[in-house]
């Protein structure tokens, strides 16, 4: 039975190498961690979020929060979709979805597509900014999720998306810093 993580739970530890061969560990004893789980490398909604995180990176950094993006896609496809540009934060390839399972990010639902129709401006924005060729290399119905983890490894925010482009607002994430 799937169990969602909640505020106050211990964050499952992560020790991995990102797509640029940098070591990544969660928790980090000196920083907060924002984990952002995505659907697949070419997902237009996920790429909107990554661009938003990239543009807000300095605001996260000012608040001593490191961003880690987790993808069920393989490293080569992630690097291809990054188009040679290194993000200012780690991106983890987790093709076997073990990190997804550890964090309870396993919901796959066609309802995610149906709920998305309640957000037409998000759909238009995603279409406008989508990559040229969309290759679906993971479960296309996987829902996104986000977690804010403190330096002791406690979850301070757990957010499971309700549709394919559902992520918490940046200010909402910052409001959990205490």
TrEMBL record:
Lineage, top ranks: Bacteria, Pseudomonadati, Bacteroidota, Saprospiria, Saprospirales
Molecular-function GO terms, alphabetical: antioxidant activity; oxidoreductase activity
Span of domain Thioredoxin: 5-178
Organism for this UniProt entry: Portibacter lacus
Protein name per UniProt: Thioredoxin domain-containing protein
SUPFAM superfamilies: Thioredoxin-like
A Pfam short name: AhpC-TSA
